[in-house]
Amino acid sequence: MIVTRIVGGLGNQMFQYAVGRAVSIASAQAFKLDLTEMERYTLHSLQLDQFNIQAEIALPEEVPFPARKSLFGRTINAVRNRRRINQVFEKSLSFNSDILELRSSAYLSGYWQSEKYFSAHADTIRRDFSLKRSLSRERLDTLAKICKSTFPVSVHVRRGDYVTNAVANSIHGTCEPGWYRTAMTTMTASNPTFFVFSDDPNWARENLPAFEKMYFVEPQADGRDAEDMHLMASCRSHIIANSTFSWWGAWLNPDKAKKVIAPSRWFRTEERNSDDILPSDWYRL
Questions:
Q1: How far apart are CA 134 and CA 1, in angstroms?
Q2: Chain segment 78-121, per-residue pLDDT in tens
Q3: Residue 68: is its pLDDT beyond 60?
Q4: Which residues 6+ apart lie within 8 Å of 52 measured at CB?
Q5: Alpha helices of the chain — where are they, by DSSP H?
Q6: Rounded-to-integer distance, Cα 24 and Cα 22, Å
Q7: What is the C-alpha separation between 127 and 43, in angstroms, rounded?
Q8: In the predicted model, is pLDDT for residue 152 greater than 50?
Q9: Which of 112, 145, 160, 276 could be a cystine partner for 19, CB 3.0 to 4.6 Å?
């Protein structure tokens, strides 16, 4: 069987699911999720259950023993884990084609932020990430506005911990107003209506450039974030932040004619190689 470790926010949970699902299909093995780390993860809750995912929950005896800090603890775990599933760790952010060649049981631990891990099964992944329930009333109203627009374009402004958390800010940074102005201006030939999604809508209203047709989507505090992601995917084209949330909002749109504009620098720090994060047909600005 293939077991994948789930941890992080919704976007990262989806990458971890997608790689495991793709490997399980290619190797004709059962697919399970290890949720033990999510049980003690305080920043985000499990949100994959909003989708029609096709995976079972791994039992405690089906996952490796958790890491221990002491030399004695690490030694004991190394011995105990020999009797359990083989662990495969993500070595870097760069795509590792060896993962797709796995044909025996494996436990996948990493973030796996690249379409290359699951592009061969794109239709299946998109189907798995369809919503279990219908959109909330407020989101249905937004969807109606999107559908009535001639050329709806989603714009994602990610702030949150990228601003308030010093460590996150030093790693990620944010896309600034000038970047959004350039990105949005490149879309104007299509007579777009911009649908702005943000965890800080007041900042977005005050700092984004003003265009004739703009609609600010109010975030909902109901925990149904996957629905906002699907609203993004309902647009014709996309301007995404350096965020896995809007990455998926753009990727879930299956239209091959879509235009996706993404920041050329995904991370503020140059120590992290982000070359494989963005699909080759997305425009880097």
A1: 32
A2: 444 455 688 999 999 999 999 999 999 999 999 999 999 999 99
A3: no
A4: 127, 128, 129, 130, 131, 132
A5: 10-27, 71-80, 122-128, 137-148, 161-164, 166-171, 177-185, 201-207, 225-233, 244-251
A6: 5
A7: 27
A8: yes
A9: 112
- Residue 53 contacts residue 17 (beta carbons within 8 Å): yes
Tokens at residue 150, please? 């001639």
- The confidence score (pLDDT) of residue 269 equals 63
Give the residue numbers spanning the domain of 215: 137-284
The 10 Å Cβ neighbour count of residue 151 is: 15
Q: Are residues 111 and 150 in the same domain?
A: no
Of 80, 102, 128, the position where a domain reaches its end is: 128
pLDDT of 164 > 60? The answer is: no
Residues 276 and 147 grouped into a single domain: yes
Distance, first Cα to last Cα, the chain:
40
Cα gap 238→156, rounded to integer Å: 8
Tokens representing residue 209 in the block: 């450039």
| pLDDT for position 116 | 98
When the pLDDT of each residue in the chain is averaged and rounded to a whole number, the result is 89
The CATH number covering residue 250 comes to: 3.40.50
DSSP H or E segment with residue 106: strand 106-109
Tokens 């003003």, residue located: 210
**Stated pTM of the model:** 0.90
Please answer whether residues 89 and 5 qualify as being in contact, where contact means their C-beta atoms are separated by less than 8 angstroms: no
Beta-ladder partners of 238: 154, 260
Q: Tell me which of 24-28, 68-72, 130-134, 194-198 is least confident.
A: 68-72
